[in-house]
Amino acid sequence: MGTWIKETDKAIYLMEGGHYRQKIDKSPRQGEVDGETFFRTQQLKEWLNSDDAPGFFLVSVGTGTDEPLPKPVAPPPPPPATPEPAASQSITITKVPNQVKIYHPYQLAGTTSDDLAGKQVNLYVDNNQKPIATTTVNANKQWAFQSVFLAVSKPQLRRLKVVAGQATDIASLTLTPYLEKHPGAQKLALSASVGSRGANRASDVKLVRDRLVALGYDFAKGSSINNLIQAIQLFQSAISGSTTLRGDGRVDVGGRTQGFLEAANAPQWMRMPGQGVGFYNVEVLDQPGDTHDYGIDWISNVIRAAGIHYELAYRKNRSDVAPMAVNDVSLPKGGRTPDHSGHQSGNAGDIVLPRKGGRFGSTRWTNENYDRNATEAILKAIRAQPWVDKNTLYFNDPALISKRLCRRASGHDDHIHFEINVPPQI
Question: Which of 236, 239, 243, 233 is nearest to 348 (CA)?
Fold first, then answer.
């Protein structure tokens, strides 16, 4: 209903229907013409400029009309009806591990109230809106999940939530990266620089050499400082993320090289794994005359983790699907190789292509026996690893390039090339 204005002997009213919303009282004007009144116009301006501006103005001065009454106040709404008490549904987590490694299955179990027997239970992680697993409460009011986490670069606290009907319970666990056995952190109390053009005090040289040998750089042994410099340079190339040898070959006190030498995740030099869940290393197992078998544990972790990811997400023990077949990484002491322009620092590897029928190698993406679906799954498994440099995944299948899974590079029709980034020190 629209508003309008009414003026009487006593006031100006903002009317709605037969009642007023607001009013402006008139005041007698002292010392002037008898009977004159006045009022302040500010409120009148507000009425006229409002979204619901008055439609007309009625003057009832000197008519003896009754003053209008205020608009009645609406009675308060009745109080809401008291809801019926909800059913006493409850769910309790009774089993949850404190710590889980990625790709390692874990169990979560618990119980519910009687009225949830036979009902669905959903498992949520963190703030995800979709459940990652679903199960059913059995007749004994028990439920259980077996699940697995994929890909994490550093320890993380994860929040687990189980929901059945109106009942919820919450727990947490610490998720840790996939890591092989490692020597761990070690402080080096260096007094001066070691290596190329360093002070090379005997006690400092021993500290650096012993640490590098413990990390698998066995060629640092011996009395020759050149062996030690070679190992330092290879170590520096790995921690710089370079696939070719670089670095000054010197450990400076308090510098980046010393920091990574002391770190719990210092790059360990090692022979690459021969096979594991979801992967097979052609280089190690089938090519004894080729020695591109070595690299750092960072890439070994990626190979193992990507193999598990590929197995869980796609292959699932099917004999008609080839495993992820690893080929060249680096030579036993790193450094230049006649087979590659890179592959010098133990942080780049190749994957030969899967063939239809469960075999691998000796094919190109243009061949009829090439298994594109398996290759796509392998690329996705590699890309899922947080340390993989996604900009250096090279393979020339245009169908997979169009899906932004890899990039084109000359000479990569018959294999996938991948490299890893440098993780933060821990």
Answer: 243
- The CA R_g of the chain, rounded to the nearest whole Å, is 38
Residue with tokens 């459940």: 131
Query: Is-contact 132 123, C-beta < 8 A?
Result: yes
| 239 and 293 both lie in a single domain | no
Strand segments, DSSP code E, in 113-150 are 120-125, 133-136, 142-147
How far apart CA 407 and CA 391 sit, in angstroms, is 7
Residues 309 and 409 in one domain: yes
pLDDT band at 213; cut points 50, 70, 90: very high
Are 141 and 200 contained in the same domain?
Answer: no
Name the nearest CA neighbour of 304 among 327, 334, 335, 326.
326
- Same domain? For 337 and 397 the reply is yes
Q: Per residue in 330-369, pLDDT tens?
A: 999 998 888 787 889 999 999 999 999 999 999 999 999 9
Q: Is residue 215 part of a domain?
A: yes
- Domain boundary residue among 15, 36, 59? 59
pTM score over 0.70: no
Closest C-alpha among 319, 315, 342, 338 to residue 329:
342
End-to-end, the C-alpha distance of the chain in Å comes to 71
182 part of a folded domain: no
A 10 A CB-CB count for 12 gives: 21
Confidence of residue 317 (pLDDT cuts 50, 70, 90): confident
CA angle 171, 176, 180 (to 5 degrees): 150
pLDDT in tens, 140-170: 999 888 777 766 656 788 889 999 988 898 9
Residue 37 has pLDDT above 80, yes or no: no
Q: Give residue 149's domain range.
A: 91-176
Identify the pLDDT of residue 34.
Answer: 65
Of 365, 178, 184, nearest to 279 by C-alpha is 178
In a domain, 71, yes or no: no
Please compute the mean of the pLDDT values over residues 105-120 and round it to a whole number: 88
For residues 298-332, b (16+ Cβ closer than 10 Å) or e, as one string? bbbbbbbbbbbbbbbebbeeeeebbbbbbbbbbbe
Tally of domains in the chain: 4
